[in-house]
UniProtKB/TrEMBL annotation:
InterPro entries: CYTH-like_dom_sf, VTC_domain, VTC_sf. This is SPX domain-like protein, putative. One of its GO terms (biological process) is polyphosphate biosynthetic process. The lineage of its organism: Bacteria, Bacillati, Bacillota, Bacilli, Lactobacillales. Residues 11-231 form the VTC domain.
Length: 243
């Protein structure tokens, strides 16, 4: 079985497009000559986002303060448990360039590190630890606050493998029971007919890709899954209080 090399640092331009499935089908047909399925094309992704009870980190990100950081624990396991492989990831953005730093661990070790500041042998990446410590100083009492899960289909460029296109569907979120082992359930983030297509490139779009997007008049949209899940949660809680 081929062993996948794990990349721990990323720097790239990431753009998102909210599409209906009919538009996605047209785009995929036009992109087919230029893209191929990734080595691990189909995946199930579950994330736990860390924040404090006031959700200050995501509020600052929405307000474009600082580096618009997000801290999450991600797994590709279909049925996560305490022994599943997870990534502790720090995402930030500067001048519309996205940066991601991550390390490999397990759910118990990551949660113990973020909540209690106790790092075991799996928490060994100095860059990730430095990023985490800065966020722990800025946002007091971080804990698991939101679960977001979805299905992903991943493609990469035939000529330039650094060009990546992903399609996320069946996106669910919950602001309770923030435990990966509890499974993939929650409220829908988008209408059933909608998906998120994300394009990730190290620099400018290749000419063929820009041409296809221009053909359909598509413009990238600023869309954060966690940000929108937080706003929907806030709206729901406000309506509950009014009722």
């Amino acid at each position: 079985m081929k062993q996948k090399q794990i990349q721990t640092n990323f720097q790239r331009i990431e753009t998102k497009y909210i599409l209906d499935r009919a538009m996605l089908a047209r785009l995929e047909a036009d992109m087919r000559p230029y893209l191929t399925a990734d080595d691990y094309a189909t995946s199930t992704i579950s994330n736990v986002y860390f924040d404090n009870d006031e959700f200050q980190m995501i509020q600052d990100s929405i307000a474009r303060k600082g580096g618009r950081e997000k801290m999450r624990m991600r797994t590709y396991a279909e049925q996560p448990n305490d022994d599943s492989q997870v990534f502790l990831e720090i995402k930030k953005k500067r001048d519309e360039v996205g940066f991601k730093y991550r390390l490999v661990s397990n759910p118990l070790s990551v949660t113990n590190y973020i909540v209690n500041g106790v790092a075991d042998h799996t928490i060994s990446d100095d860059r990730v630890k430095a990023e985490v410590e800065q966020l722990q100083e800025r946002y007091i009492d971080l804990k698991p606050k939101m679960v977001i899960s979805y299905d992903r289909y991943s493609m990469r460029g035939l000529e330039d493998k650094k060009v990546r296109v992903t399609v996320d569907s069946n996106i669910r979120y919950r602001d309770y029971d923030a435990d990966l082992a509890s499974g993939r359930y929650g409220l829908p983030l988008l209408d059933d007919d909608k998906v998120i297509m994300e394009i990730k490139v190290p620099g400018q779009y290749p000419q063929w890709l820009a041409g296809i997007l221009n053909k359909y008049g598509l413009e990238d949209q600023s869309f954060s899954k966690y940000g929108n899940a937080y706003l929907k949660t806030k709206e729901r809680l406000t309506q509950t209080v009014k009722a």
